[in-house]
Write a structure and sequence with these properties.
The longest helix has 16 residues. The two termini are 31 Å apart. Helix 1 packs across helix 4 and helix 2 crosses helix 3. The protein has 321 residues and is α+β, with helices and mostly antiparallel strands. Helices cover 31% and strands 34% of the residues. It contains eight helices and 17 strands.
């Protein structure tokens, strides 16, 4: 039996966090509900962790206040950008969590490369290396005389490194908010999550160095995966994939809770999906093509004892049938 990873969250708590998030985003929250949310958030440390997890998975407009966020999702692109800029210049988004995440949103928006919600993009770097960027990802590139450096601002990237074509062997590194991943001639992926970073190696190896100066380095080899924070590296886990599933246009559920699956699926569509807490820990197994997320939701309703409802536009809620 595979060891449970540290910092995993009860699926029912994830479902509760997603429900709160969707309520705030709907623009129909009442004053007493704000107080109830704050009490829920303070009731247990896992509630704050779950809230951060939901914010990471849900699309990139999490920095906006609720009513503006819903409007921005349906506005034309130019109008959306102007509205967001105006709101941030005014300042004050109401809830502390949105205010806290605002700086991270603008880092993503102004990055060298950023991928829209539901899109996947592949870029070729100056040295011939390729980087596939997952939905909602943002990346800065800085190639200098001594270093080939990527800064992952948000989301997930999959990298196939090339030999340095500049005539000397400059190290190839990916920096996250938690530390540095150095490629040792390899294929690997890196994701920036709300409270940590994750690395998976598909060929050769990488070296992980958390940002805290007293944290030891750790090598990760092909077929291995781990997550790390600024001051620690978590236990190594096995990985059986040849490359991330999203680079092949699918989302893979390997016996994961329904709440976690829906959070992942939400990254590839506009709006938000939630589920009732009583079905949050229902296990999901399978491979689902990402080109039609409505079809994925319909297949859940066909094959599981669940039904789909639409409390508001852009909000799909999964309930027990």
């Amino acid at each position: 039996m595979q060891q449970k990873r540290p910092l995993e969250i009860d699926p029912r708590i994830l479902a509760e966090a997603a429900e709160w998030f969707a309520l705030f985003r709907s623009g129909r929250v009442q004053a007493n509900e704000t107080a109830q949310w704050q009490a829920w958030l303070a009731a247990h440390p896992d509630h704050q962790t779950a809230w951060s997890r939901v914010e990471f998975h849900i699309e990139r407009f999490k920095a906006l206040p609720p009513k503006a966020a819903l409007a921005a999702l349906t506005a034309p692109d130019l109008q959306r950008r102007r509205a967001i800029k105006h709101l941030v210049l005014l300042g004050g988004v109401g809830l502390a969590s949105w205010q806290f995440s605002r700086a991270g949103y603008w880092q993503a928006w102004t990055a060298d490369y950023h991928v829209a919600q539901g899109q996947i993009q592949t870029i070729t770097l100056a040295d011939g290396s390729t980087v596939a960027m997952d939905s909602g990802s943002a990346l800065n590139v800085a190639f200098g005389a001594d270093l080939r450096r990527l800064q992952l601002v948000s989301g997930e990237i999959y990298i196939e490194t090339a030999k340095d074509n500049a005539g000397w062997q400059r190290p190839f590194v990916v920096d996250t908010q938690d530390g540095r991943v150095r490629a040792l001639g390899t294929r690997f992926s890196v994701s920036q999550q709300a409270d940590r970073s994750e690395v998976t190696v598909f060929a050769d190896s990488v070296e992980i160095q958390p940002i805290h100066p007293n944290s030891p380095k750790q090598q990760l080899h092909a077929g291995q995966n781990t997550r790390f924070a600024a001051d620690r590296i978590e236990p190594i886990q096995p990985n059986k994939l040849d490359k991330p599933a999203w680079t092949q246009g699918v989302i893979v559920a390997d016996d994961i809770p329904l709440s976690e699956f829906l959070l992942q699926l939400n990254r590839y569509r506009q709006g938000y999906i939630t589920c009732a807490p009583e079905i949050a820990d229902m296990r999901i197994i399978g491979s689902f093509p990402l080109k039609d997320t409505d079809k994925i939701l319909a297949s859940l309703a066909t094959n599981l004892p669940v039904k789909l409802t639409n409390p508001l536009p852009l909000w799909v809620k999964v309930l027990p049938r």
